[in-house]
Amino acid sequence: QVQLVESGGGLVQAGGSLRLSCKASRTITSVFNMNDMGWYRQAPGKQRELVATIAADKSTRYSDSVTGRFTITRDNSNKKVTLQMNLLKAEDTAGYYCNWESSWGTGLPVTVSS
Q1: How many Cβ atoms are within 10 Å of 92's Cβ, its own excluded?
Q2: Per-residue pLDDT at 31 exceeds 90
Q3: Contact criterion met (CB below 8 Å) for 103 and 4
Q4: Quick check: helix, strand or coil at residue 11?
Q5: What CA–CA distance (Å, rounded) separates 98 from 37?
Q6: In whole angstroms, how large is the CA radius of gyration of the chain?
Q7: Residue 52 near residue 72, CB atoms below 8 Å
Q8: b (16+ CB within 10 A) / e for 46-79
Q9: Model confidence over 53-106: pLDDT tens digits?
Q10: Contacts of 101 (CB under 8 A, 6+ apart)
Q11: pLDDT score recorded for residue 39
Q12: How many Cα neighbours within 13 Å face the side chain of 99?
């Protein structure tokens, strides 16, 4: 089973920035690079939703709510994905989860104070 280890997150004021990182282990690089990686988030009382995904060819997809503010990148050689979050809003407050295939990270808390 692939293990996803996340780092980053925390508390920030509205308008600020945070960076989330996720590194995959227990998989070989060639297999990792065949599939999309993504970030999802879940706010209290709400369903988990897509934030952004990045394919092996580094093409990206974003939810409408974060387009223009968040940027997802991946480092294939290090099996790592990063989510740069700028111009954060109170409604971005949620637990953020890294995803690769059927594997999920344990989640990072992001709190944006208004």
Answers
A1: 22
A2: no
A3: yes
A4: strand
A5: 7
A6: 13
A7: yes
A8: eeeeebbbbeeeeebebeeebeeebbbebeeeeb
A9: 999 899 999 999 999 999 999 998 899 999 999 999 999 999 999 999 999 999
A10: 2, 35
A11: 98
A12: 18
Which residue has 């093409």 as its token pair? 59
Distance CA 31, CA 86 (A): 31
pLDDT averaged over every residue in the chain: 94
Q: Check whether 29 has a pLDDT greater than 80.
A: no
- Please, are residues 74 and 37 in contact by the beta-carbon 8 Å criterion? yes
DSSP string, 53-110: EE-TT--EEE-TTTTTTEEEEEEGGGTEEEEEE-S--GGG-EEEEEEETTEE---EEE
Instruction: Kindly state the average pLDDT of the residues 5-34.
Output: 91
Q: Which two tokens stand for residue 88?
A: 């954060």
What are the structure tokens assigned to 110, written together?
């992001």
Q: Do 21 and 85 contact (CB within 8 A), yes or no?
A: no
